[in-house]
Structure formats: C-alpha cells, structure tokens
User: What shape does this take?
Amino acid sequence: MEQKSKAAVCREIGKPVVVEEILVEAPRRGELMIKLSTCGVCHSDLSATNIPFPPPVVLGHEGAGVVVAVGEGVSDYAVGDHVVSSFISMCDKCRYCQTGRPQLCDQAARAAAPLPDGTVRTRDLAGNPLSVFSGCGVMAEYATLHADNVVKIDQQMPLDRAALIGCGGVGLSAIQGCHIAGARMIVAVDTSDAKLEMARQFGAAHTLNSRNEENPAKALLKLTGGADFAFECEGSGEVVALAYGVLGKGGTAVVVGVTNPKDTTSIRTASLTFGEKTLTGSYFGWARPRQDFPRLIGLYRAGRLKLDELITRTYSIDEAPQAFEDMQAGCNARGVIFF
Ligand SMILES: [Zn+2]
Ligand SMILES: [Zn+2]
Assistant: This one.
C-alpha cells in the first residue's frame, strides 16, 4: 500500500526547500502510516536546511493526521485514530523514558534522520532513499512513522490546532506557559516591535525592545527587581548570558533555544553560590508527550491555551517554499500547511 505523496524536501544545505512527489512505503513492524491533515512550519525545519543534516531529507515534525495503516505488532493504534507526530522518539524502555524524561530518550538520537531501525520508508521517484527529519518527515501528504514518534489525541480536537501542540512558536508558548502557571509579571524581550506586539497578545504585560536599550540587563533588573525565571528562546550565547544576568536571588535561567554548537558564554560563577541561581537547559520544553499533549489539548479546550491566535497564515503543500520565506522574514507567529 505504497502512497505517492507531495512533500517538502531539503535537497541541498543552504538552498530553498523544494516540493516534489515522493513514494511512502507501507508500515513495517511497530510502525504506522498517517494521512496528514496539517503540519506546522518551524524554525527547526529551517535549521535542518542549514546545518550538516544529511540531505535529501523530508522536512516536517509538527504534523497531525489520521492513521490509515498499521504495521505488525502495533496494538495501541488503529486505522481512523487521530494522532500528532512527536519530534522526539520515545522507546519507553531506556532509563530516561523509565524515569519520566522521554525527551532525553536514548533512541531519539538514533531516530534523528531515519526511523529507529536505521532505515527509511521514503524514496524519490528515481528510487533513491530520502531521510526524514527527526524520525517524522510529516511535511508531506503521507508519512510512515514508528509508533514511538506518535501520540494519539482526542478526535474532537481540530487537527490544525493539534499540529501546534507538538512544538509551535517557542517564545510565545513560553509566555503562555508563564501565564498559565500564574506568573506575577511577564516581560517579553525581543529586537522586533512586531514580535513584541504579538507577545502582548499572548500574555506579556511588559515588553522591552533590547535594541533600544544601552544595557538591557540593567533595564530588566530595574523593571523586575530580579526575575524568578528567565527563558532563553533565541539560541545565542549572548542571550543566555542576558537571561542569567537578569535573575534575582534563587532565580532560574532556562535555555530553550538551540545555540550554534561553537557558541559559548561566561557567567560570574560566585553568583551561583551566593545567589543560589540555576542555569539549566530544557529540551522539547521538558515535555512528556504522552502525558502533556492531552493536557495541553485540555487547556486549549478550556480556553486557557491560545492556539488559534498562533496561526497567522495557512499554506498549501505547493506553497511550502513561500511558508519558509515568510518564516525567515519573521512575518508569522506560525505558518501551517494544510493538505
Ligand atoms: Zn527511551
Ligand atoms: Zn518545531
């Protein structure tokens, strides 16, 4: 039951994404095939076109769709189930999965470009294999994934909104998280006034354009009196230092952005002891997809999590290159591809 499928593919590092027809094989043992309904367009997909990630690769990791075929040995899913893809693979067996930290699953590193068994179900029309980004490759009409990269969701949840549960607008989502957690004061920092305006709509009562400040850390310390938490969502050593620098005593700086592997920063180490400060990282928002995705859907349905507002523009799969251009230009909170 092989499917011909239009897909967004990175053919060459640093070159624009192309849309082409590919072949998606039927699921093997432990796998399932999804007919995609929507897929979010994310900076991580763009990163895959800029870093030495082995091309050609089918992009997309924020997909939502319906199961159309299940492989041997899959008992938790059936044809017709609604599912979202997970950027991380969850084996349920390694010590990280077993201790509630599936975002650090040992299998995820093996399932970064192929499926967990090291092979792929995707080929181009000439018969050459295509990698799949993050074990997903869901920026395509059909995708065959391992069940460890999939989470079942409530059928009542609109699939275009569900696609954003798996990632979606990291900075704005951090602001929403603070809001839901009941933060006393939320301050958004960016260099773009348009982004700061969006931040206000998502729950930031205060904003600061760091371009207009000679010393952003000083301005933030004055405004907040020292932050309890600071989230770095940019992916830059310099911003990591800023996040740590604005903490008050007992504060925690959380690095969410993915910095360049060669990026470094320095901090005054005495403040770790005297101020009891913490500098830590968060991969995939510390999410445990099988527990947290349904929880986020509950928050959305209760009107506490804004997802509708995240979708600035929708695209067809043929318009995928435009969606990447718009993302690079910073036009969208989120672009979503509809199939
Ligand atoms: Zn694991
Ligand atoms: Zn993403």
Observations:
- The chain has two domains: 3-167+286-338, 170-275.
- Residues 55 and 82 are 30 Å apart (CA to CA).
- The pocket of zinc ion (ligand 2) is lined by residues 42, 44, 61-62, 167 (CB under 6 Å).
